[in-house]
Amino acid sequence: MNNETPTLDKIQKCGMTRYLESSLARNFFLLAGPCVIEGREMAFETAGRLKEICASLQIPFVFKGSYRKANRSRLDSFRGIGDGKALGILGDVRRELDIPVVTDIHEAAEAAMAAPYVDILQIPAFLCRQTDLLVAAARTGRMVNIKKGQFLSAAAMVHAVDKVRQSGNDEVCVTERGTTFGYTDLLVDFRGIPVMKSECKCPVIMDITHSLQQPNQASGVTGGLPALISTIASAAIATGADGIFMETHPNPAVAKSDGANMLPLGKVEELLRRLVRIRQAVI
Questions:
Q1: Residue 107 carries which DSSP code?
Q2: How crowded is residue 187: how many other Cβ atoms within 10 Å of its Cβ?
Q3: Residue 270 neighbours by CB under 8 Å, 6+ apart
Q4: End-to-end Cα, the chain, rounded Å
Q5: Which of 208, 269, 266 is CA-nearest to residue 238?
Q6: Which of 180, 228, 230, 243 is deepest in the core (most CB within 10 A)?
Q7: Whole-prediction pTM value?
Q8: Cα–Cα distance measured from residue 91 to residue 99, given in angstroms and rounded to the nearest whole number
Q9: Closest by Cα among 46, 107, 99, 131 to 121
């Protein structure tokens, strides 16, 4: 891959791993977007702005959006606008903006359903040990991004990665998203980033918004500490993270899911410019 903004066709030909790693000599890559697809307008607004920012900073970019949220605290929590409608929007973003896309899957049967619309299938942290899910995702041929369970050590993630590789798919990456600390908080052990790079031998991503969640609140609504997003992101880049994952929204206050720990879309460029400077200082 050269320094030109790559087209989706070129990305597919070179492979997602090569695309994500194409700038690592000077930069990191970004997976970012809203927690869940709420509608077409918001998805295109967010994806279009992120694409512009990343192109200006030469950051390989993948748009993130969940077509459905399965892991909710309460039965009345927002889960999505419908699988078919949301996947269609993701596919439209992918095609019309010419950018790769990542979404979560929760059961093995969803892998084949979601794969035609996206480039990366993401395994939620709570499900990172689910063998059938990992194998089904691997067999689609799409890259598989496995989030580290809040209950797992960094070194243990090699077994999840091996399930994907042993299923015939070498396109795999892992994501740190914090470790359970008590009942309502998470901590990030930044030693895990170099450990996973050494043990898993694949791109390692830092989820800078979910790692600041405050789950299991008595209200049934997950809290967060968005004021620390820059701190977590800066430390991740300094300790060698290959990529950054974050959720962002034009107005987190009205987001239908996880608004408490999102970064406002208007603040993304400032953060990424800071991270680029850190990256340049440490390589």
A1: S
A2: 11
A3: none
A4: 20
A5: 208
A6: 243
A7: 0.92
A8: 10
A9: 107
Task: Round to whole Å and give the CA distance between 255 and 21.
Answer: 31
How many Cβ atoms are within 10 Å of 143's Cβ, its own excluded?
28
Assigned token pair, 98: 């010419």
**172-to-29, 149, 161, 187 alpha-carbon distances in Å:** 15, 16, 7, 24
pLDDT tens for 106-136 read 999 999 999 999 999 999 999 999 999 999 9
Look up residue 66 and give its two tokens: 């969940």
Question: Which domains does the chain carry?
Answer: 8-282 (3.20.20.70)
Residue whose entry in the numeric block shows the structure tokens 């419908």: 82
Choose among 102, 118, 104, 108: nearest CA to 138. Answer: 108
Q: Which residue has the tokens 């992918």?
A: 94
| Residues in contact with 4: Cβ distance below 8 Å, sequence separation at least 6, in sequence order | none
Per-residue pLDDT of the chain (283 residues; tens, 9 = 90+): 555 678 999 998 999 999 998 877 789 999 999 999 999 999 999 999 999 999 999 999 999 999 997 766 666 566 669 999 999 999 999 999 999 999 999 999 999 999 999 999 999 999 999 999 999 999 999 999 999 999 999 999 999 999 999 999 999 999 999 998 988 888 999 999 999 999 999 999 999 998 887 765 556 555 667 889 999 999 999 999 999 999 999 898 887 876 677 899 999 999 999 999 999 999 8
φ, ψ of residue 14 to 5 degrees: the values are: -85, -20
Rounded to an integer, what distance in angstroms lies between the CA atom of residue 84 and that of residue 231? Answer: 37
Give the model confidence (pLDDT) of 154-177 as tens digits: 999 999 999 999 999 999 999 999
Cβ-Cβ contacts under 8 Å for 256 (sequence gap 6 or more): 35, 36, 38, 78
Ramachandran angles phi, psi of 196, nearest 5°: -65, -35
